UniProtKB/TrEMBL annotation:
Belongs to the ubiquitin-activating E1 family. The lineage of its organism: Eukaryota, Metazoa, Ecdysozoa, Nematoda, Chromadorea. Its main location: nucleus. Residues 24-325 form the THIF-type NAD/FAD binding fold domain. One of its GO terms (cellular component) is SUMO activating enzyme complex. It comes from Plectus sambesii. Pathway: Protein modification; protein sumoylation. Pfam families: ThiF (PF00899). It is found in: Nucleus. One of its GO terms (biological process) is protein sumoylation. One of its GO terms (molecular function) is SUMO activating enzyme activity. This is SUMO-activating enzyme subunit 1. It comes from the Eukaryota. Heterodimer of SAE1 and UBA2/SAE2. The heterodimer corresponds to the two domains that are encoded on a single polypeptide chain in ubiquitin-activating enzyme E1. Interacts with UBE2I.
């Protein structure tokens, strides 16, 4: 029988309290009161309490959100002992989100923790409207694509992450991001003549040098993020992208891409033959030479099982930082 927490994150805006200001003092010094107040009024949905999911939950709780919804329909397994530190070892067989609740709340009692034990597939589009950001961990390619389309429809930011043994990935679709860049510009017309003295007074030895004064300009930039589908289906065969693919595509990209493709086959997702074919197809799609690849299936197949704690920590830290930003 499923246990579903019926609470929902509220959407009211509140100012930071004195207790919170004292608790988050160091963070406020780092990114300012306004940024901390935005965090304080944010509701985040985290789907997938795997090892990487636990790392993300930890970092978000310490940052100081308004509410964090933990969603997972899976039960705690023996494999979770390796990296999932939020679920105690004596909770094996219990729902993973429910088992992670107590330790998550203890990280920061000021953050409201909500638990949902439903499967992601059962949630319709309206469910996601109440969140400011959705983070999916170790979910299937199809579900990430579906949720990303919903989030874009409702103007909700989204992140995705996954860990496969020694390999991991992080994806961010923050829709549109605006930032201001401070640029120093020279103003030659306002040059100032400076006398450089050698210690003997303003005599013949004194040197004169012209120094250009600097003006600071604040330039606003806007970045449009790619959707999950666009990011995962770039046409690397075009002349404009082929050179970039050869220079910047890490070998791990093909590993992750092949694993995501293999997941579509369900029970056959862990088959070496299926993964090898998916890897080969992706390398060929990118118009790269198979023999030149540094990380082939026979090399990485032994390193993709389970979740490695340090990899979870790295992926969880990077993705959580994107959420906070």
């Amino acid at each position: 029988m499923k246990m579903v927490q019926t609470e929902e994150p509220t959407t009211t805006t509140e100012s930071i309290t004195e207790d919170e200001a004292a608790l988050y003092d160091r963070q406020i010094r780092l990114w300012g009161l306004e940024a901390q107040n935005r965090l304080r009024n944010s509701s985040v949905l985290l789907v997938g309490l795997s090892g990487a999911g636990a790392e993300i939950a930890k970092n978000l709780m310490l940052a100081g959100l308004k509410s964090l919804t933990l969603m997972d329909h899976n039960n705690v397994s023996e494999g979770d002992r390796d990296a999932q530190f939020l679920a105690p070892v004596d909770t094996i067989g219990q729902n993973r989100a429910e088992a992670s609740r107590l330790r998550t709340e203890q990280l920061n009692p000021m953050v409201h923790v909500i638990v949902d034990t439903d499967a992601l597939e059962s949630k319709d589009a309206d469910f996601f409207e109440k969140f400011n950001l959705v983070c999916l961990v170790n979910q299937s390619y199809e579900q990430i694509e579906r949720v990303n389309e919903i989030c874009r429809k409702f103007n909700i930011k989204m992140c995705a992450a996954g860990v496969y043994g020694w390999f991991g990935y992080g994806f961010s679709d923050l829709l549109e991001h605006e930032f201001i860049d401070e640029v120093k510009m020279l103003a030659p017309s306002n040059s100032t003549e400076v006398h450089v003295l050698d210690g003997k007074g303003d005599g013949p030895e004194a040197k004169k040098r012209k120094v250009d004064e600097e003006e600071t300009a604040m330039i606003k930039h806007t970045i449009d993020f790619s959707s999950w589908s666009d990011a995962m289906n770039v046409d690397w065969s075009r002349k404009t992208t082929l050179g970039k693919a050869k220079r910047s595509l890490t070998p791990a990209y093909f590993v992750i891409r092949s694993l995501l493709e293999a997941q579509k086959l369900g029970d056959k997702a862990t088959s070496p033959e299926v993964i090898s074919k998916a890897w080969k197809d992706e390398v060929e799609r990118c118009k790269l030479v198979l023999e030149e690849q540094k990380c082939k299936p026979e090399d990485f197949m032994k390193f993709i099982s389970g979740e490695l704690g340090p990899v979870c920590a790295i992926i969880g830290g990077v993705v959580a930082q994107e959420v906070i930003k």
